[in-house]
Amino acid sequence: MRIIWRGLRPRWIPALALALTMLLTGCTNDDVAQDGRITLRFQSLAWQEESVVANKELVAQWNVSHPEVKVEYVQGSWDSVHDQLLTSFEGGEAPDIIHDASDDLADFAYGGYLADLTDLLPQRLKSDIPQRSWRTTTFGDGIYGVPFLQEPRVLIANATWLRQSGVRIPTPEKPWSWTEFRQVTEELSGEGKYGVAWPLKEPVSATLNLSLSTGGQLFHRNQDGKVAIRFGAADQVVPDTIHDQVNTDRSASPTTLGSGGSDTLPGFFGGKYAMVPLGFSYRQQIVQQAPKGFDWQVLPAPAGADGLAQGVSPQTLSIAEDSPHKKEAAEFIDFLLRPENMVRLALGDWMLPTGTQALKDPALHTAEHDWVTGTALAAQLRSAPAQSVRGYPEWKDKVATPAFQEYYSGAIDIDDLRRRLEEDGNLVLARYQR
């Protein structure tokens, strides 16, 4: 709870002190029962049935084995988490343990709303998760979240269609290049069918994360520590490929550009699209919804000058700076992310764990549902380009999303896209870097 003492006249202080004492007593009673038992609130964003069950079961296991510290499960939503957290932080009502994504943490971390976990986390957890993952939650000199689940963007393909076409099937060892990918989608298209359907209702993260494979970075930190946007040749490869597939080759469906990933599945199952670039976790929906006998497979995303490198924004667990029980909250996070528990959470969400021990689990290396393909890509996952950029949410919503959408639809050219990303984008970022 934050108490701000501003403009208080001396004659009001005794009355305020009494009221404050009562308020603090009330707050304490919410967190510590009369028998001394601490209660922690854990806001989870799990939404798939298997994931919700796994999270609740682990909370129940903790509560049985830790009678002195009770964890209360609170259901949150990905759709509204940023605004909801901002409101709860400002109102002093934030949950103790916060489930979020790493690309949403920068403003909260720099704003002082999240606790620095550097000295709270056990060495076991620090060493189990690779440094490339810790970079996604490191801001300045502090660590403000534990990255625990991640997923590569992959190509979900109609296996029968690809097999009958005779095209070369890519593997993590021998992926398609972006040029070959464009050629293949053109070869697979015709007669009202498309080689690929890009679901780009939210085009920014997909474009930037895939562009790491071509050496794209977009955000560049200058010597003064400030970030500037520069849209160079390496940043253009992925957006140019998508633009040309839609507008030149007619190998990508123009109608899916404003769609979410799930919206493309009926057309995919119906034989309208040969491939759909999706997050690895979409396999669950495909298993649940695909018609009987529909043969599908997971392919790696195309590779560029930097191979299969790909940006990710892992799911994270953070602790509110205002939590009076940070030590106990960190202990719960350590319990939740033990290797065997991390595997349960990964299987529940159909994603990959960040922990090296969990990633070795045989359940994540099976051919069934192509788990082994996704696991083979884990070492190529990197911090998304915008992870540490203050003002990224505003830049994404107000500048980048409409600019990329217009470029992909053919409404603007590459020079217009560059101007808007750089000129308009740098104006937005400048407000956060004064």
What do you see in this structure?
The protein is of the alpha/beta class. Helix content is 42%, strand content 16%. It has 18 helices and 16 strands. The chain has helices at residues 13-31, 49-65, 81-90, 106-110, 123-128, 131-134, 159-165, 178-188, 203-210, 233-247, 265-269, 283-289, 326-336, 339-349, 356-359, 371-376, 392-409, 414-430, and strands at 38-44, 69-75, 97-101, 138-139, 142-143, 146-150, 153-158, 194-196, 219-221, 227-229, 273-279, 296-300, 310-312, 315-319, 352-353, 381-383. The protein has a 6-stranded mixed beta sheet with strand order 2-1-3-14-6-15. Strands 8-11-7-12 form a 4-stranded mixed beta sheet. Strands 4-5 form a two-stranded antiparallel ribbon. Helix 2 (49-65) runs antiparallel to helix 14 (339-349), helix 8 packs parallel to helix 10 and helix 17 runs antiparallel to helix 18. It is globular. 44% of the residues are buried. Residues 1-29 have low confidence and may be disordered.
